[in-house]
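Hi U.,

Before I forget, here's the chain from the pilot set. I'm dumping it here mostly so it's searchable later in email.
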Amino acid sequence: MVAARTAEVAGLTFRIHSSVHPDPAAVYVLVHGIGMSHRYLRRLHAVLAQRATVHSLDMPGFGGTPKPRREVPVEEMAAALGGVVVLLGSEPVVAVGHSMGSQWVVELGAARPDLVSHVVVIGPVTDDRRRNGSVQALALGLDSCGEPPAANAIVFTDYVRCGPRWYLRQLGPMLTYPIERRVAELSAPLLIIRGGADPVATRQWCRRLRDAAGAGRLVEVPGRPHIVHWGAPRAVASALRAFVLAP
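Structure:
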């Protein structure tokens, strides 16, 4: 059963979708990317919830939550995300972010290591050699050709609900956040997951992130596009469990 509630932290509103396990092997917090919502995390959420407590979030301004009236830097969003983790009362958690969500969880792990035991980034952005809005738009357009129709349906409807104004306000922070520098400041171990056919988070970029981290691993799911957790939720969940439960 998934229960939903809202939480306001520092004037930012989050929606939390929770599955609470009576004897969890871990506690996961799943964070979507720019323009998206918890909906495309549902499959991964369901698989993880078989053995763990899972909280999937709708970040401020996304998924129908109230839109802030100004641009929110990655650092500020991550600080508010930390407040949500404290409210959940089960820290430290495994912080899992997809696409731009990878920036929020990396920043959370770097700034608040007391709240995070492991950091997981899926299809992380933004490649420091391709920090250009047009290049990223082209990569996303190419990726949509390889995504399952059901995934594309969620992407397109969530983008419409997000709206161009809020999307563009968050695009600037996404393109300028130095994730390759911040992963080097993580005390928690880092797992990078990418689909083998992901044109957004390339293999070379993910390898550079892995090598920049103090304790980094990279897992590829062959043949999968950017939203790898939708098409291959069991493979992604298996990689997460192996990472979290490893000695």
